[in-house]
Amino acid sequence: MKKKLSYTSALLCAALILTGCSSDDETAPTETTEAVAPDLTSAPADAHWQPVSGITVPVKSADGPDSSDPVYHGYAHTPQGAVLAAINGQVAMAVADDTKWDEVSTTLLAPGQGRDQWAQGRALVSVAPGAVQTNPATFQGFKITEFSDDRTQVLLAADYPGVGLTVYPVQLIWQNDWKIVVPTLGAAPDLTRLGSLEGFTPFSADQA
To answer: Which part of the chain is the DUF8175 domain (predicted)?
Structure first.
């Protein structure tokens, strides 16, 4: 693939107190707090990885997911939660069997033409429950290139057997959980080779 706590800033202002009209009136000082920038480079804390249909993914961490029913979902409203949603969502789309793909669509993917097209295409193929990926990719790191309260883009770095290190962008929006925005047919980005993890945050099962 190519390359829950809100981060809205808190602004606290003391009320202006007018005690009279004379020149001796005093106004209470205005107190403000500075906006805290989101942490875009730290990896999800306390991540626990395990195989899902042969692909090892982070199934538990301080930022989610908090449920595996019907599929892994429930992520913190943080950059780290978005990273976890991107990884697990991409894998769920790739390995969803005939009993799960509809739940993947409705639970993990943002409504839109891209999701509809993915569901239509998935309905045309059959994947038996219990199928396991052979020679799967392994996730190696991430880079967040865009982040706001309602939208983010995560570049996922993965090592593919026979191909090497690659990067793929995943866009997500916040709708009471991080959901993947599926690109429409013809607009999907390409899987791109990556020379190194420079500029990326390492995040893999090997670090667990």
So the answer is: 28-202
**Domain range list for the chain:** 48-207
Instruction: List the one residue out of 46, 58, 48, 63 whose CA is nearest residue 7.
Output: 63
Q: Is the pLDDT of residue 166 over 80?
A: yes
Q: Is 76 exposed, middle or buried (0-12, 13-18, 19+ CB in 10 A)?
A: buried
Q: Are 201 and 178 in contact (CB under 8 A)?
A: no
Single-letter residue type at 107: T
Q: Scanning the structure block, which residue is given the tokens 């995040």?
A: 203
Structural tokens at position 151: 């939208």
- φ, ψ for residue 79, nearest 5 deg: -60, -40
Entry pTM: 0.83
Residue identified by tokens 């429930």 is: 74
Question: Which is it for the CA torsion 53, 167, 192, 138, positive or negative?
Answer: negative
> Which of helix, strand or coil describes residue 177?
coil
C-alpha span between 87 and 80 (Å, rounded): 11
Residue 175 falls in which region: left (phi positive, over 0), alpha (psi -120 to 50) or beta: beta
